[in-house]
Amino acid sequence: MRYFITLFLTALAFLTLSLSASAQTPTPEQLFEDAKARIEAGEIDNVLEDFVSACAQSYAEACNYVGLIYSASEDSDDFKTAFSFFDMGCNLGGASACEGKGNLLFDGKGVEKNDTAARAAYITACNGNNAEGCFYLGSMEYNAQGGPKNLSSALISFNKSCTLSHTQGCESAAYMQRNGEGGAIDFIKAANNYQKACDQNLAGACNVRGIMHERGEGGNVDYVKARAFYQKACDGNNGFACDNLGDLYNDGKGVAKDMVAGNIAYAKGCELNIAASCYQVGYSAHYGREQAVDYAQAIEAYTKACDAGNARGCNNLGVLHADGKGFPKNDPKAFELYQKACELNNAIACRNIGDFLRDGRVGEKDVTQAHTYYMKGCAGDDATACYQTGYAYHYGRGIDIDYAKAHTDYTTACEKDYASGCNNLGVLYASGLGRDRNDGIAKSFYEKACSLKSGVACRNLGDFAVNGRAGAADLRSAHNFYKQSCDLSDGAGCNSLGFSQFKGRGGSIEPVAGRASYKKSCDLNFAQGCSNLGLVHYNGEGGPKDDVTARALFKKACDGNYNDGCRNYGVALREGIGGTADEAGAVVALTKGCNLGAQAACQMLSK
């Protein structure tokens, strides 16, 4: 049809209309078909006058063609002429002409805009089995244009346009059936109509067909079929489908997990301006997910995602600023991006703001305000944020102590498999805080936390085993728990393991291993571990005697506020162990040890 229109736009100025006829005038249908044939052959001379002549003889389709020719112009007078021919054809029963009339009435071209009259014209067109007329009618009924909103009638109109092979009509009917608009939800009919639209290469319909397979709407979940539909839609430049395809590759659904293919799909989705895909492109570049780490690419993709309102893109762009990756380290800029992401309800960003305020990374520390953001993060289902609110209630950080609320928030974190939340629930039960003391329940939470790789919880299990809480004392089990704890880099656990190794609780005395465990504890900045490591260096246990190193380790322990570390350091200074004697320094160290609760240090001060 557009081919016809283009030809006539060029020729209109040169054509002279004539309605004269002779005795040999052919029938209007012959005039119309002959004119169409000449157009197809590239001959346009006198074609318009034949269409006009056929229209004048009450041949409706000819009137429609004349209307199409004139409506292709941008001249207002031509639109008026077009309307007159569409109106004539519609009055003669031409469904296509009624659709053309409705279009001009709806757009207000060549005639005053009149939605009510347009809807009436589309009704006539649809009754005459004009597919586009049915589609436009359904749209007006759906959107309450030119009359009341009528979803049931809209669904009928869309279905009829689909039956008449109108692709968008099939998609619109499917949308309504899938969402229960104009009738009950009917996934089967929706699937059939989306399939018809997809078969006509409507990419959006293919994407939704994939979603239905992925969700099991109208049948069983079928990731393989979902992937095939997403691939077809993505090939048709539907960005949402590319993003969905990337997710399947990312999750290994319907195909082996393949982030190379996933990254390709996300890259195309991002090119098609899908913010979620841009975030994924940024994530892969940021963390080297099946590609080389590329902070410049991550910045570009996260920025595009963030600018489009993708909260995760804003948050992760903030992470790059906070970590100084791809940018000079810039906490204020990171904070600004976290705020934007938090306002977009990204729970992790809200928690990140809490961390910044708690740690004073953008000014003075403000643990009270930090708690407010942790609460928002927890409300958004971020387990770490829930742990932080629980911790604040547990220890009174910025707010009043409330063990009941601590229990609630730790429980939320633990249910999301956040190990520290489970461990601290165990602490509440072990201590009888906010609940009756119950070592059995405490142990169960420590066990869950330990299985989730909490070194602190594994150490707590070791302490329970040593002290016979929630069961008989079992030093061998305690030793094993301390080893797990140390392997998970818990400094206190390494210290306990070292003690256990020196005592032979694992089966035999292991001084070399014990010395190594104390060293790891000290390297993890556990002050008691440094003090114990100092003692084994002083005594030459598990390795050579080394007074100089022992003195340095006692100092580190004292600097870490371990009371006996200060006592040992004071002794070393007073007696000149590992260096020159320093009585004044010894008094300072012993005084600190005394103030920290080391009674032996207090007694030494009195001598």
Report the end-to-end length measured between terminal Cα atoms.
111 Å
Report the average pLDDT across residues. Answer: 94
The first-level CATH class name of the domain at 417-514? Mainly Alpha
The helical percent reads over 70%
CATH topology of the domain at 417-514: Serine Threonine Protein Phosphatase 5, Tetratricopeptide repeat
Main sheet attributes: strand count, strand direction, barrel closure: none
Total count of strands:
0
Summarize the structure.
By secondary structure, the chain is mainly alpha-helical.
Topology, element by element:
Layout: H1 2-11, H2 28-40, H3 47-56, H4 60-71, H5 76-91, H6 95-107, H7 115-127, H8 131-142, H9 151-163, H10 167-179, H11 187-199, H12 203-215, H13 223-235, H14 239-251, H15 259-271, H16 275-287, H17 295-307, H18 311-323, H19 331-343, H20 347-359, H21 367-379, H22 383-395, H23 403-415, H24 419-431, H25 439-451, H26 455-467, H27 475-487, H28 491-503, H29 511-523, H30 527-539, H31 547-559, H32 563-575, H33 583-595, H34 599-605
In words, what does this structure look like?
α10 packs antiparallel against α11 and α22 runs parallel beside α24. By secondary structure, the protein is mainly alpha-helical. It has a domain at 417-514: Serine Threonine Protein Phosphatase 5, Tetratricopeptide repeat (Alpha Horseshoe). The N and C termini lie far apart (111 Å). The longest helix has 16 residues, at 76-91. The protein has 34 helices and no strands.
